[in-house]
Amino acid sequence: MSEIEQVIEDYVLGWNSSKPEDRLLLMKKVLAENCLYLDSHLPKPVDNIETHCQLIESFREKFPEISLQLSTAPDSHHGHFKLTWKMVTKNGDVFLGGNFFGEVNQQTKITKLVGFVDKK
């Protein structure tokens, strides 16, 4: 497994964590402190780890039965990556799907993550 694949796997683990303190630890492991997260559903970019975790917590409070899964293995080169994801219910139904495009720094921490949601 490449370093970027491990970072993505840890990001997904953090996203799916039911404990905010565990999520924060994992996100501190994989996100640069000033990581920029952009998503068409957000009014403005998220620009730090704590706000990123708050965004996930807010989603998980609304949809506690939903988990994030990778639909494809990450593809990466030159510090950039892309992947397809899906959000799935406990019984396996796809709730949402989309893509992430991102960048990592020299320490293989995510510095930018751009999310796209597929239209249903």
Automatic annotation (TrEMBL):
It comes from the Bacteria. This is Isomerase. It comes from Crocosphaera watsonii WH 0401.
